[in-house]
Amino acid sequence: MAQNTEKYNTNKRPTWCPGCGNFGIHMALKTALAELEIAPSETFIAFDIGCNGNGADTISTYGFKGLHGRAVALASGAKLANKKFTVIADQGDGACFHEGIDHLVNAIKSNYDITILIHNNENFALTTGQATVTTNQDKPMYGQPYGKPEKGFNINEFIMSLHPTFFAKGYSGDIKELKDLIKKGIKHHGCSVIEISQLCPSYNKEATPQWFNEHITKVSTLKDYSNKSYDKAMELSKKMTNDKIYTGVIYQQNNVESFYDNLKNRKNYKTELVDEVKEYNIKPLLKYFE
Predict the structure, then answer these.
(1) Are strands 245-252 and 166-171 parallel, antiparallel or unpaired?
(2) Strand arrangement of the beta sheet that strand 86-92 belongs to
(3) Cα–Cα distance measured from residue 83 to residue 269, given in angstroms and rounded to the nearest whole number
């Protein structure tokens, strides 16, 4: 894989812990871009705050580190400004399902043509392992030695309840499958959500590669399963837990117009919004405030 990804590399050394799933995720992302022949200059990645956000230093594309939970909003705006770009939102489970949950809801509802990668290591790792909505309720965490007091919720069922046009689940230890899922997500016309079960050797030590191998089932091995059926996808999502993981394309609905496609006032425009930005002399306006 690595021989095709050199143009996406930077001279920065990653700061992740040895064994962190972010290594595999970024290898899959770079390889997906390389195989799709999408140049670094044609790619914009909105990074969130967190361990995943440090990936902005190690991939040579246009990128921006936004505020915590705002990667999806940033990516949505970038895609609307210039739809020629391949736009990706890269964030963790904490950012996505805490501060950023409203942005996830609206991106799926609006069907913005972006790809959302959710690094799910089941904790706020950058700040030394606080519990997130995906952390098991009885799991001792930093600051909560007796486990978090509130219950979590099934993020898979939640995403499916929003009727996404593309929802997939990957694993950071299976780079080949994850790469293929990212490629499918990028090629999908609409909002693609890819939730990634991620190794975290520092704060989720129980979930080792061996543990994942025992708890992951590929949807391609399920008899009579169709990712074109919303009912089957929702039924499968309800079965998913932190201990019962399915990977692959869970659901895909093609031929649904994206948000930009539905903008009737843009139908006859050949230019991008970014091309229409002009400089305005505001000095006359400022005189009103003198």
Answers:
(1) antiparallel
(2) 62-65, 43-47, 86-92, 115-120, 192-197, 166-171, 245-252, 216-218
(3) 12
CATH fold group of domain 2-289: Rossmann fold (3.40.50)
Burial of 104 (0-12, 13-18, 19+ CB in 10 A): buried
Question: What is the rounded CA–CA span in Å between residue 162 and residue 39?
Answer: 32
C-beta separation of 237 from 160 below 8 A: yes
For 222, the token pair is 């399920």
The neighbour count for residue 146, using CB atoms within 10 Å, is: 9
Residue with tokens 């229409």: 276
- Per-residue pLDDT tens for 2-15? 458 999 999 999 99
Integer angstrom CA distances of residue 84 from 7, 98, 126 = 20, 30, 33
Token pair 């919303």: residue? 230
pLDDT tens profile 249-288: 999 999 999 999 999 999 999 999 999 988 889 888 898 8
pTM: 0.94
Instruction: Give residue limits of the domains in the chain.
Output: 2-289
